[in-house]
Amino acid sequence: MSTTTVVSAPGKVLIAGGYLVLDQKYTGLVISASSRFYAVIQDCQQPGQAGQIIVRSPQFIGAEWTYSVTIHDDGTVDVSQTSESKNKFVYYALKYTLILASERLLSVGSARSLRDSLQHGLDIAAVGDNDFYSQQAKLRELSLPSTVASLASITPFCPQDVRLDNVNKTGMGSSAALITSVVSALLLRFKVITREEFYRPDSDARKLAHNTAQFVHCFAQGKVGSGFDVSAAVFGSQLYMRFNPVLLDGLMKGGDTASRMLPLSPALSPGSHWDYRTVPIHLPPLVRLLLADVSAGSDTPSLASKVLKWRQETADEADALWAAIDTSNQTLATQLRHLFDLHERQSDLYVSAVKRMSLAPSSEVRGSALFILAELTTGGYLCPSGLANTRALMRQMGKAAGDDVHIEPDTQTELLDASIAQKGVICGGVPGAGGYDAIWLLVFEPNNGTSEPLSAVEKLWEQFPNVSPLLATESKDGGAKVEDIDKVPGLRAVVQMRR
Ligand SMILES: Nc1ncnc2c1ncn2[C@@H]1O[C@H](COP(=O)(O)OP(=O)(O)O)[C@@H](O)[C@H]1O
Ligand SMILES: C[C@@](O)(CCOP(=O)(O)OP(=O)(O)O)CC(=O)O
């Protein structure tokens, strides 16, 4: 029986540093979510499939794409899409990982191994945890209340009765997690990297997967973004400083024609030209990340180009505002670290303080309890009021950038203020670029999933139409990882599903 290669990669929430993270001077604070994307690679079951790759997303209607791979004697590789239906993200992930693999394997004298890996053809299933797509319609269909418990009870990798193009995404970064899982699984399958190397967070193998996924993601999107989503999918929660976008110029410029494309290996191999920085970070113990899917039904237009235009036109004003936002963002990161350290040093004290705080009315949380906790740490206290400050500054930036730049729209302000006023809620905001699609909160969770703050927030959100929690918490397992298909509930079943 042939082996199955499975790699998962987490979704993300940028809780601080939206827009600023596009500039190498600033960092973004990104939390990886427990919700993951899975790439499952097996040999094709039918005979006569040599050189064929089929990619399927069984959660969706009509989501199947086929490719034909030709490996020439000189090691060059052609990948052509043979299905009528196209998926750029999948196509470029396959194509550029195959080209890179061929270059790498050729250079170490094992050119045959790529052909060998494709001798039966490959079947790749790409599936995302339910959180990547809004489950509000599903919950209504099952007459279930909008709670974390309901979400935990529905079928994993729940089939969606729509085509992929029409699905309601939740903003967790499906394309970055998809590309990261597919690229990493292929590199492992083709033996360009080993499981042991990939396991290590700082290995060249993991960095190669990261660099390749960054390039593929940029190429598929047709632009070089900050890359925080791919970095979080590969390395887990972190403070992220972007790479210099110039380093991808050569590869981006060539367009999708093999003859104009530079060799990939020198550009994508780890080295000092990849000047991104990642500093791992974790939410403190007993602090839960809680996300809302705000399915307002409107597409959030891209705000980034407007914000960047404003920044260019009003350099001094913008610089001052960005510096203030950054100070506030760094303070949040420092506070999280202090609380983490406090737990390490004085865990009994920490646990009892969190218990008290999770029951305290929020004004008290803001006014005293957190203060006491933070007094015990060295860096003073700023978490909730600091975040309120960040929110105000981000709103100010939106207003300055234009009447239609709704980074924290009024409806979201109302939802956030009401949420943060609940017992035990520490702070919150609109993730990433802002807009109408989601909010994040940090709440105390003294008893692992059964805490009062969570149910209070769930009750509150019931009063807001189209607002429901997501299941995700922070990823306990860091970034991308190799999985056993039978240890992930529902994974084998969804992979075997044909629709
Ligand atoms: N399950 C899936 N299977 C295959 N491709 C997917 C899947 N989910 C998402 N994608 C790809 O990712 C694209 C969505 O990317 P994007 O609009 O950047 O959203 P996001 O913010 O979730 O990353 C889709 O158009 C599709 O090409
Ligand atoms: C503006 C940004 O800094 C943040 C965008 O964050 P989102 O979380 O909204 O990202 P998408 O998944 O691409 O929609 C752009 C960037 O960093 O690339």
From TrEMBL:
Transmembrane stretches, start-end: none
A GO CC annotation given for this chain: peroxisome
Documented EC number(s): 2.7.4.2
Keywords: ATP-binding, Kinase, Lipid biosynthesis, Lipid metabolism, Nucleotide-binding, Steroid biosynthesis, Steroid metabolism, Transferase
BP-aspect Gene Ontology terms: ergosterol biosynthetic process; farnesyl diphosphate biosynthetic process, mevalonate pathway; isopentenyl diphosphate biosynthetic process, mevalonate pathway
Pathway assigned in UniProt: Isoprenoid biosynthesis; isopentenyl diphosphate biosynthesis via mevalonate pathway; isopentenyl diphosphate from (R)-mevalonate: step 2/3
InterPro entries, per database record: Erg8 (IPR016005), Phosphomevalonate_kinase (IPR035102), Ribosomal_Su5_D2-typ_SF (IPR020568), Ribsml_uS5_D2-typ_fold_subgr (IPR014721)
GO MF annotations, alphabetized: ATP binding; phosphomevalonate kinase activity
Record field: catalytic activity: (R)-5-phosphomevalonate + ATP = (R)-5-diphosphomevalonate + ADP
Stated family: Belongs to the GHMP kinase family. Mevalonate kinase subfamily.
The protein, known as: Phosphomevalonate kinase
